[in-house]
Request: fold
Amino acid sequence: MHSEVVASRSADQRDLRESRHGNPHLDAVSLAIIEQLQEDGRRPYAAIGKAVGLSEAAVRQRVQKLLDQGVMQIVAVTDPLTVGFRRQAMVGVNVEGDVESVADALTGMSEVEYVVMTAGSFDILAEIVCEDDDHLLDVINKRIRALPGVRSTESFVYLKLKKQTYMWGTR
Reply:
């Protein structure tokens, strides 16, 4: 038992080191824990521990550290249609000036679920989830297009969601 705690502590210290890119370095055990939770976010820590070779307490500590570092989140993923959101769209945004300030403003909007700064035809892609078409129009026309620096937008309305997964594993 003592050797497992010492091994877990030294592995946790390795986890806290940052890579050259400023991201936390994740060892094989942390990656295995993440994969276990991607398969089932409600999997008990004892079952995860058995799969990765740690105690329940060590897994609990590792998971908390991964959450605190922002490496992962544990959330309930829903189908927006089943919870009252009838319209989804991806909105491409072209920006004049500071892209980050526009991205920051988009992240503050409750309807915006996903924001990524890109290279290519658009400076930013934002996924929007709304109650209906009127709500979507209001968000795009009165809120996104009104942001300082937004030069243009192009909307891609979702007709049908065919695949939504968060099971890409770890690399």
Q: What stands out?
A: Strands lie at 87-95, 112-117, 124-130, 150-157.
